[in-house]
Amino acid sequence: MDVEFLGGAREVGRSAVLVDDSLLLDYGLLTADPPQYPIRDPEPDAVVVSHGHLDHVGAVPALLKGDRRPPIHWTPPTADLARVLARDTLKLHGNSPLCPFSEEHVARLGEAEVRHGYGEPFAVAGGVDGGGYELTFLNAGHIPGSAHVLVDDGDTRLLYTGDFHTDDQRLVSGTTARPDADAVICESTYADVTHEDRAAVEARWAERVRTTIWEGGTVVAPAFAIGRTQELLLVAAANDLYPYVDGMGIEVTRLLRRHPEFLRDAEALRRATGAARFVTGRDGQRERIAADNALVITTSGMLAGGPIHSYLPRIRTNPTNAVTLTGYQVEGTPGRELQEHGRLELNGQVRPVSARVDSFDFSAHADREGLESFLDDYRDARVLVNHGDRCEAFAEDLRTEGVEASAPELGERVEL
User: Fold this and answer.
1) Mean pLDDT across the stretch 218-240?
2) 252 exposed, middle or buried (CB, 10 Å; 0-12, 13-18, 19+)?
3) Is the dihedral of CA 88, 94, 99, 104 positive or negative?
4) What is the C-alpha separation between 396 and 379, in angstroms, rounded?
5) Tens-digit pLDDT profile for residues 79-134
6) Helix ranges restricted to H, 342-390
7) pLDDT in tens, 226-236
8) Within 13 Å, how many C-alpha atoms sit on residue 286's CB side?
9) CB atoms within 10 A of CB 43
10) By the 8 A CB rule, do 129 and 117 touch?
11) Percent helix, percent strand, percent coil in the chain, to nearest 5
12) Which residue has the higher pLDDT, 95 or 210?
């Protein structure tokens, strides 16, 4: 078995790993200006998608051009999320060189997709007896439907971790899956970070929201539509807070509720959704909400677009208001600029932000301790570190602990 890294090697974004020129694991895009896609366009016999985030699934419709129809294997939530993300990409970049697919290719997903639950082995590319593989999805604890992918060709067992979390979140339980494997392709997004205790993070966030509202301010909580918006809804409900919800997170929340078996507590999400107020944006609604002494959970999580830009200009000048950043802010994004310098570019002009800005670590990825505890079960396996900004450093640390680890480069081919 050999693997080729077409994306996600020593970087976060555009994850794509090709196994034996036959099986493609993920096919995402890297959010940038312009967007970046995997380094080449493969023609696999089968595609497997670990979960429904843009950097893992965002370019999949491009694999269905011409008469190509490789079967696409994913969980039911991932299948639905892929369509939401594809339509959003078309809305932003459709009919331009920045988007490698069209609405027609998105429609073809229905012809090619095959949906699977956790722990249900399935054959691809002819199965083990036909020179292909047996695959199994296992709960990765990242977002609903996220999966570790176990690939078995009869000789070698490869575990592709995808994105994962070892701790419980309110939305999903942490991964407990540790299948036998000869090699592991392991994400390393937070390889140099120790997360603050989640209960403490939730308590600090809820207190900031309550205090701001009590003082007469408005709280805007930028949040990723997939996973983070729903997590914040659950945290808000647990603390008797009743937020407005705006942006793509509304559609995603409704979508995820259709898959209760992939949620930690479907009833809790139902109650939290019932306690929230969904924003339509009609008739000046956002302007009124911005002055309404309330909590608003809205996209985008890094302030790069979306309804957040309707709220920020209206709350930025009042120090009683607050912006609670609830996710990692990538370098070069408006969110990082606000976090580090207290300013934003609005309508083509850089403006200071007087509203209070606080950051809260609601990450859905394993931290350094979580990564090490996961890999403890694979000390005798070969570990290929990817999906991180410091892959080489983490691989070197693993080697000092006796693990056969490396961090492949973009485009590198590794024989297992």
Assistant:
1) 97
2) buried
3) positive
4) 14
5) 999 999 999 999 988 888 899 999 999 999 999 999 999 999 999 999 999 999 99
6) 368-375
7) 999 999 999 99
8) 19
9) 12
10) no
11) 30, 20, 45
12) 210
Q: What separation, in Å, do the N-terminal and C-terminal C-alpha atoms of the chain show? A: 5
pTM beyond 0.70: the answer is yes
β-strand pairing of 277-278 with 157-160: unpaired
- Per-residue pLDDT of 353-396, as tens digits, reads 999 999 999 999 999 999 999 999 999 999 999 999 999 999 99
How far is 308 from 335, CA to CA, in rounded Å? Answer: 11
Q: For residue 118, give both structure tokens.
A: 């956790």
Residues 6+ away with beta carbon under 8 Å from 93: 35, 99
Q: CA 51 to CA 32: how far, in whole Å?
A: 20
**349: pLDDT confidence band, cut at 50, 70 and 90?**
confident
- CB distance 71 to 47 below 8 Å: yes
Tokens 């011409």, residue? Answer: 66
Give the span between the Cα atoms of 128 and 34, in whole angstroms: 40
How far apart are the C-alpha atoms of 277 and 414, rounded to whole Å?
50
